[in-house]
Amino acid sequence: MTKEIIIAIDFMGGDDDASFILPGLRIAYEKHPEARFKLFGDENLIRSKIKYFPELEKVSDINHCETFVRMDEKPSSSIKRGRGTSSIWKAIDSVKKGDSNIMISAGNTGALMAMATLILKTISKIQRPAIAAIWPTINGETIVLDVGATIGFNTKQLIDFSILGASMAQSVFDLDQPTISLLNIGEEEIKGLDEIKKAHEILKSDNYFFKYKGFVEGDQIGKGVSDVIVMDGFTGNVALKTAEGTASQISTYFKDAINRSFMAKIGYKLAKSAFETLKEKMNPSRLNGGVFLGLNGIVIKSHGKTDPMGFSSAIDLGIDMHESSLLLKIQRNIELLDKEINFDKISN
Amino acid sequence: MTKEIIIAIDFMGGDDDASFILPGLRIAYEKHPEARFKLFGDENLIRSKIKYFPELEKVSDINHCETFVRMDEKPSSSIKRGRGTSSIWKAIDSVKKGDSNIMISAGNTGALMAMATLILKTISKIQRPAIAAIWPTINGETIVLDVGATIGFNTKQLIDFSILGASMAQSVFDLDQPTISLLNIGEEEIKGLDEIKKAHEILKSDNYFFKYKGFVEGDQIGKGVSDVIVMDGFTGNVALKTAEGTASQISTYFKDAINRSFMAKIGYKLAKSAFETLKEKMNPSRLNGGVFLGLNGIVIKSHGKTDPMGFSSAIDLGIDMHESSLLLKIQRNIELLDKEINFDKISN
User: Fold this and answer.
1) What ipTM does the predicted assembly reach?
2) CATH 3.30.70.20: does it fit domain A127-290+305-348?
3) Going by CATH, does the domain composed of B123-295+304-348 fall within 3.90.1150.10?
4) What is the pLDDT of residues B35-93, one digit of tens each?
5) What is the pLDDT of residues A275-285, one digit of tens each?
6) Which residues from chain B sit within 8 angstroms of residue A273, using beta carbons?
7) What is the CATH T-level fold of the domain B1-120, as seen in this structure?
8) Residues B40, A40: Cα–Cα separation, whole Å
9) Which residues from B are below 8 Å from A148, CB to CB?
10) Residues A8, A103: contact at Cβ < 8 Å?
């Protein structure tokens, strides 16, 4: 019998009443019959909804929480109000206590990151956690980090992110030696911010458990040039959102073009199956889920505006991380790298 | 008779021998019969090519230059080698001397910016120049700056960029009071880098010659929420290139989808005119041209990999700037704003 995987769910996070959560769990459960759910939130609310999902009722337990974090609440206020009592806090805490294997929330990202860092703590020798996203490329997928955990950065953090991202690539893409690039604004060594240039010097000086390929620019992320692309959280967040915005803009153009004439509509109908594939490739819920990396526990942030399929793919991602022993990989890789470079002595 | 507009062209800049330059000038000349061209570069080369464009020969003069800047040359080396002698230098210098109204190059951006700053100098009270791009949106166009002139930034520069961008919006979009936004990684006031938050406080404190609308995130650039969106050069360059990369990625998906089946090909043929419109909207040469803002002269950077239509639209942009008296607008707006806020005293 496959070992159970226990998933802590923040039931109170997400836009529009998070009505995607239970349908999402049903999809995830069909795919992963070994999944068990711990639902954290208002008990009455959960009971009133889960009764329509009897198959989930059997494999879930309900953990009542007195408070919950609002989507627009500041991290500092959420901790003041929600420490020990909120659905986010208690769900993360169940990972800390070993009662759950992974934690998933579609709630307030800042509060989730603040609480996760406070409860789980960063892995030894890692300065600050990062959020990693999976970015679709023309030949597959690339891990991009940090996409918004940390504002402001130094060289040591870029090295940390390289270790974390490459470890995740070993887990998700099942690779021995993933390739890594640093995002910069020129491929030449002369351009860019000093912190990035210093990280480049350290990364290119040797072959580590990953293979460093140098600088890439923004237009190369989607070309799949590396398994992992590393950048600071501000830049990564702008890049990710700009790419999402561009995709949605082109999708608007596309719909306008189709609706412009009768012939275009007929043409679209004939080519429909081809366009369905295109639509699927551009579907943001296919790759939903930001992975919090660098903490002593697996926490996944689902998009707040996702759908059941999207929420279930965030769960897929978490299960994948757990089953591939991501945390052990990260710890082993840090030890490995620590022997090769003066990991603690990297100047900022 | 319309007054002549004299355009200084760096003949030696651009990828693939810059074979788009003369065909591009022909398109521009058909549209702007008042245009006159000063071509800077190797005289023999120019003569061997321009003889196939007799209509251009009549309205162009050739200015021989002994050196030219290579596409991959560092700015410092290009200045050492090309000061006073290179095609970029001499073309900018003709703007400085008043012999030309605008200067256009498809060459090395770093060298072009370094030489332009050295020769033309920044406008009084502007710390550093910016590169502005015109970004297509679902309801029109937005000016985005800085897209790569400056690495590293402070609050004063973001205010400068706001003045420069809003002045350009007055020129290009013919608006009295353009709207502007600051790019950040959260719409809330709590997030983001300190320099950006300080600029936000200054901009929101009053109504200036522009209307400040607050923060936007990367996914809103393409929604056309403001006439101008301001950001630092590193972030702007990443955002612009990521958007370009995403558009080209989706275009690859699209071609793959069409070629997958016979039915899809037939469908595409029926819907062809609709897709041509889509293709036109996504055509990067339609909005080619980075405008150097903040200098005492108009310099336009064309993409190095453009086509004749793209090169001619960079010229269009330059002519537009000149005819709408952009430089006077900028100076007047700086004076206006200087009365309203302690412009020199903004802390970094």
Assistant:
1) 0.88
2) no
3) no
4) 999 999 999 999 999 999 999 999 999 999 999 999 889 899 999 999 999 999 999 99
5) 777 677 766 66
6) 261, 263-264
7) Isopropylmalate Dehydrogenase (3.40.718)
8) 70
9) 185
10) yes
